[in-house]
Amino acid sequence: MEKYYLYFSLSIGVTVIVEIICLSKFSFSYIYLVAVFMKSIFLLVLSKIVIKLLEIVTEEFSKLKKHSYIDMLTGVSNIRKFYEDLELILDGKEFIPFSLALFDIDSFKSINDNYGHSIGDDVLNKICRIIENILSEDNIQAQLFRYGGDEFYILFRKKTNKNINELLEQIRLEVVDYNFKYKEIEFKVSISIGVYEISEKIKFRDILTKVDEKLYCAKVNGKNKICY
Questions:
Q1: Which has the closest alpha carbon to 131: 211, 189, 68, 187?
Q2: Collapsed DSSP state (helix, strand, coil) of residue 84
Q3: Global pTM?
């Protein structure tokens, strides 16, 4: 209501100004002043409504854009967000070395086959929560993205392999030590990780190829490993 009192006061002010101008220039009617007063109130209220609607539209657009970057199953950032963030880093004026990790869950298909896809989804979610908790410690500049299926990227900003070795080992160990459950059955899960350090500007696709090769290295060397 305070805002509408303000509009009322502003409208009176506009009307007074118009009256002063009219008195100095030509004759006028009070009906004209009432019309000016009413139009002033109407325009001020209308502008407030328009501004409010624009705020609502902007807020809804922001929410929609945010949701378009989120993987619906795990709640982490999706591959679209990953591509955009990586492109922004590579297109930046000042290049800062960073590292990229790609991991997947060892023998994930057997989890779905043995326990069902809902348990497989639960495994994906729990692993994401484990990793997010680790990445949230000590202001680590890293973000988790779901590539698809059971494959995920971790983008380490301003960090090289020397900085993240211990961090990835912590992730690997916490995952393999976690007791997953299906009804009364407990089972273990491991992940294999490939890591590639980007020390100079190279092509977008070359980065993805390099880190994929590192993950393949971890797989062929026995799984549950990290290949740098």
A1: 189
A2: helix
A3: 0.73
